[in-house]
Specification:
With 318 residues, the protein is mostly helical. It contains 13 helices and two strands. A two-stranded antiparallel ribbon has the order 1-2. The termini are far apart. The relative contact order is 0.08.
Length: 318
């Protein structure tokens, strides 16, 4: 029953059995966990369980932030307006950004063979989200944090592309915008336009400045993008952006990686340095063992014997 309802739902809210209105993210997480247990392929044997689980997870990804919910509500409103104007529903339009391909879905953090692995990844994602919100969205630090988030998003996008390519995965929406097929298509159009441009360089104005990324000026959108990237890097590739390395296993990462944010790595590094300095200062320096000179030892013994004889003479009675 749950599988059929999810696949028949017309929008992300309906997939998660939520009213078409903004809702607390904690409720979204609760609904997702409850429905995921019902349709995860490891728990549900219905033929379309995997398809329903993917659709449910994509809905959760979109509704797990206030920005994503607002976008989905706008899309639902626009869809309703078109229906009322036409008088009939008609075919379902694709969701913003396009539906992920089968290859793209293989790289998503929720695509696991067992329910236990999925639960662990979900808990990890929740811990990562809490850490990011604590570090980046704290009052007076917001402006500085937004700048840092932009830098981290760009670095994480490049890492995702590099690791995905090495794994043989298809192009992903997590890659830098300039690395997508859309960007390549636009470059081809600009190349054709250069043949008839009214003045040199006119066609280049059609190319977007990929460094601007105005959507990343919104702290919530930047935070959501960074969360998606870090979750993908850590869950799919066991790669930490701030350690700059790939771990052998999830357990290895949990044990040796300081955390999800850059600040956690800096704090761990500083604590390690202070501990090392304290340990060094607490240990007294031990004198180096010098090899004894045989001649010097002999002369010391001769002088000691001479001093003993002098004392004996002074004590002899007259």
């Amino acid at each position: 029953m749950a599988v059929a309802k999810i696949l028949a739902a017309s929008n992300p809210f309906a997939r998660l059995q939520l009213e078409l209105e903004a809702v607390d993210v904690a409720i979204v997480r609760s609904q997702y966990r409850r429905l995921a247990l019902a349709v995860h392929p490891d728990k549900c044997k219905e033929p379309k369980a995997k398809e329903a689980f993917q659709a449910l997870s994509e809905a959760f990804e979109r509704l797990s932030s206030a920005v994503g919910q607002a976008q989905c509500l706008r899309e639902a409103g626009a869809k309703a307006a078109k229906v009322s104007k036409r008088g009939s529903p008609g075919p379902e339009p694709p969701e913003a950004g396009g539906a992920p391909s089968a290859e793209d879905r293989k790289a998503r953090w929720w695509d696991t063979k067992t329910w236990e692995e999925f639960e662990e990844r979900l808990r990890h994602r929740e811990r990562a989200e809490a850490a990011l919100r604590l570090r980046y969205c704290s009052g007076l630090r917001l402006r500085f944090s937004t700048k840092k988030m932009r830098e981290h998003v760009r670095a994480a996008e490049r890492s995702a592309e590099h690791l995905d390519r090495n794994m043989g995965l298809a192009e992903s929406f997590l890659w830098p915008p300039e690395s997508t097929q859309t960007a390549r298509d636009l470059e081809e159009e600009v190349a054709k336009a250069r043949q008839t441009e009214p003045w040199p360089g006119a066609a280049n104005e059609l190319l977007p400045d990929y460094n601007e990324r105005p959507e990343l000026n919104d702290p919530q959108m930047a935070l959501q993008r960074l969360l998606e990237l870090l979750t993908h890097l850590r869950a799919v590739h066991r790669y930490c952006l701030f350690c700059g390395c790939t771990y052998d296993s999830t357990e290895d990462m949990e044990e040796n990686c300081p955390g999800v944010t850059e600040e956690e790595h800096e704090e761990a590094s500083s604590a390690g340095l202070r501990s090392s300095q304290k340990s060094t200062a607490a240990q007294p320096e031990e004198p180096e063992d010098e090899e004894e000179d045989p001649l010097e030892a002999y002369m010391v013994s001769v002088e000691a014997e001479a001093e003993r004889q002098k004392k004996g003479k002074r004590k002899r009675p007259r």
